[in-house]
Amino acid sequence: MTVASIASATLTPRERHARPSTRKKLDRLLMKAAALIADKGFAAMTMRDLGAALDMSLAGLYHYFANKEDLLFQLQYRTFSALLGQQETIAAQPGTPEEQLGRLLTGHLQFFARHTHELKACTFELESLGGAHYRVIEEIRRRYYRMLTSVITQVIRGPTGAARATRQDRHATLFVFGMLNWIFMWYDRTRHGPVEQIGVEMCDLILHGLEHRRRHAGGREAHPRLDDAYQRR
Amino acid sequence: MTVASIASATLTPRERHARPSTRKKLDRLLMKAAALIADKGFAAMTMRDLGAALDMSLAGLYHYFANKEDLLFQLQYRTFSALLGQQETIAAQPGTPEEQLGRLLTGHLQFFARHTHELKACTFELESLGGAHYRVIEEIRRRYYRMLTSVITQVIRGPTGAARATRQDRHATLFVFGMLNWIFMWYDRTRHGPVEQIGVEMCDLILHGLEHRRRHAGGREAHPRLDDAYQRR
Amino acid sequence: MTVASIASATLTPRERHARPSTRKKLDRLLMKAAALIADKGFAAMTMRDLGAALDMSLAGLYHYFANKEDLLFQLQYRTFSALLGQQETIAAQPGTPEEQLGRLLTGHLQFFARHTHELKACTFELESLGGAHYRVIEEIRRRYYRMLTSVITQVIRGPTGAARATRQDRHATLFVFGMLNWIFMWYDRTRHGPVEQIGVEMCDLILHGLEHRRRHAGGREAHPRLDDAYQRR
Amino acid sequence: MTVASIASATLTPRERHARPSTRKKLDRLLMKAAALIADKGFAAMTMRDLGAALDMSLAGLYHYFANKEDLLFQLQYRTFSALLGQQETIAAQPGTPEEQLGRLLTGHLQFFARHTHELKACTFELESLGGAHYRVIEEIRRRYYRMLTSVITQVIRGPTGAARATRQDRHATLFVFGMLNWIFMWYDRTRHGPVEQIGVEMCDLILHGLEHRRRHAGGREAHPRLDDAYQRR
DNA sequence: GATGAATGAGATTTCATTCAT
DNA sequence: CATGAATGAAATCTCATTCAT
């Protein structure tokens, strides 16, 4: 899934009638904006920054966005829609709950790897949206949350288990989201390896916990690496 | 541990010579600042906001902080120092690695519960510091990270296990930090119950995984709650 | 030479690409700024003052100047370049060293009369520029200084005299600059007469000294004036 | 004449009753203030700068000065009074007008050499005083100006010459003040030699002009110096 | 005398946004 | 579509000055 495909995943009403050439340009704008927001935060990014980064006049930007917040909204709307769409497709495929969980984790992490900036802007800047915009995006997030909760509940109670998630199931889901979303704070491909491997490890922890790992320790990491995590920036 | 105790936990050089009355006032300022930063983000909090919230003149604030960033630095320095101090004390107590992990998780969550605003400002605004300030704070964070890594490694490899953490041990630690830090995004005492209970559940997941829970499901939650998570703000 | 001609004498890189209409406006801004700086000094002139004097918003000024110092730099750069250009043209004309000195003094004083504010801001605010800006302007000043030194050396040693100025020649040049630059502190056309007359007197003093005047005194000022010097502001 | 002697030269009413210890301290304050003003200008010097330079609290300064302008006034009043006093003493001594002029020039330059900062603050910051303060200082300056005018007139018209200075005599005086005051902009003892030598050269120029020097050139500077003027800062 | 704390006024600069062209 | 010019509002920070202690 390319960035362009995020762009066209779901369209905001305003742009549904835009011509393809306009859409192309809009994609470029949003991608650059995502990079800036991911880097410095939405409040700290200025429209001037964006104009300069795009080699474009300040006034020109306002042909594409009603205002700064609208820019963030469009970015989040597209990105979250694309992520949700992808994950719903994955969840629709057959398999045990454990398999589904694994596929979802990997899918999320792959999306993260491909759209780091965009997803970061979505994950950490929801609060920068106000009122109506906020609610639209939150609804998408909630759908995603409910989907994952459902899978986790099935892992615990079996595929035919009680449909209703318990309080603890929900907490567990929130723990999982924490693991997934915190990755922005530390992941570096050259240091931590491909996201698929991270996904496997995360799934392992979630399903079996550390104890399981202990029982299998020793043979686990035949060639202990000397690299280091969470260091040297 | 009260906020005042955070304040005096460790002192910045500048304030080591300040008189107690000055320190009291400084505590008040930092506490209010933490609340505002936690609410809207550091970039979006203005010195005016802070002055108004404290019923104090703008110029007056600059008696306590060299500039806005210095304010954030002082806040992070104190809070992280206090957290680290507390956790190192806890880690020094005897017990199995599993017990230690449990106590550390609970300790962290209790600190969070008591100093929500301060800790949030620390957790999400590290990047708002530049250069020298950044490095000072990062070093504290790193010490905390290493401490938790060590405990987790012992859980996996046993108390006498290899001192050297593997790459996967470090990833696991980062997953755990994700769970802990993401809590700012959802926790609400009236909805999710006391943090001690959250700590138990988190520890359970980390040690045994979901499968374990499945084996014990059924009796677990005799009275399924009707409340809902991640909703209604 | 009009103010507009100062403006276009030499262009700062930034503005070389500006359109004529922009340049016109910039001229107006700099002229007004020069008046304010001449009146109260650079440090005491505020951007607000300037905006008000131009009936223009504060923010609007920042379209033309990166910051307050840049404003001063542009002003000095243009003015000094124009003065130097004019004087180099004069110096290139044939004549005895004495004639050249006289023409240069008159040229300088005429420039002063036509661009009093601008030249004052240049003469007394060099130290208000920092680092790189300072050096650029100082180089222009130095060229002017060297030119005048050369002429004065020729007056003393003859047109074919030693090319190398002695220490005393250089001191004499500095004395001459003192006479020229101090004029800002006292000259008032209605009280002291046209600058051309001042130029003649100054040249006379420099070439022949007071003694010469003594020898010719008596007939000199047939109708002693009753006006007053250095008074009533 | 030491700085302390400037201080006690003439007293402002306010301080006439101060005790000696207070006066000592006041001297120190004014001396430091003069240095700062000479360096950055009066408007750019802040009371904080001064407090820091003196290792003294901001509020403490206000025991010695009613306000910032009063500080400048006191400084100018003392310095100018001391200079005027010294020069009047010199002028009272017998000798030809030419001798008197020479002694006055040398006296002025020596005062400059001993009290560079103080005199600079007086010479270039008169306009920073307002209303009443301005007039008091200006009166002192005027007395100095009249004294020098009188001597110069006598040089031209002889000791018994018309008491009334002509317009040109006054202009010549202003030229001389220009030479004297501009010295702040370039003089550096290590580069230009002692002020007494500068005084001789200046007097020579004023009395005889460059032509005279030409007639005597060649033998003048037996060992042409290689140093350079107005360069390399 | 001396000082820490405090402040009103104001300085420079930035920002999102608009509009005529 | 695109841009240069412009601006109101506001942000950070500074400054001279005061006052209780």
How many H/I helices of chain A?
Answer: 11
Query: Per DSSP, what share of the residues of chain A sits in E-state strands of 2 or more residues?
Result: under 5%
Provide the CATH topology of chain A.
Tetracycline Repressor, domain 2
Number of domains of chain A: 1
Percent of residues in helices of chain A comes to: 55-70%
Helix and strand pattern of chain A: HHHHHHHHHHH
* Mean pLDDT value of chain A: 86
- CATH superfamily descriptor of chain A: Tetracycline Repressor, domain 2
What does this structure look like?
4 copies of one chain form a homotetramer. By secondary structure, chain A is an all-alpha fold. Chain A has a single domain (22-209), classed as Tetracycline Repressor, domain 2 (Orthogonal Bundle). Chain A is 69% helix and 0% strand. Chain A contains 11 helices and no strands. The longest helix of chain A is centred in the middle third of the chain and has 27 residues, at 131-157. The two termini of chain A are 29 Å apart. The relative contact order of chain A is 0.10. Chains A and B meet through helix 8, helix 9 and helix 11 of A and helix 9, helix 10 and helix 12 of B. Chain B binds a DNA duplex (21 and 21 nucleotides) through helix 5.
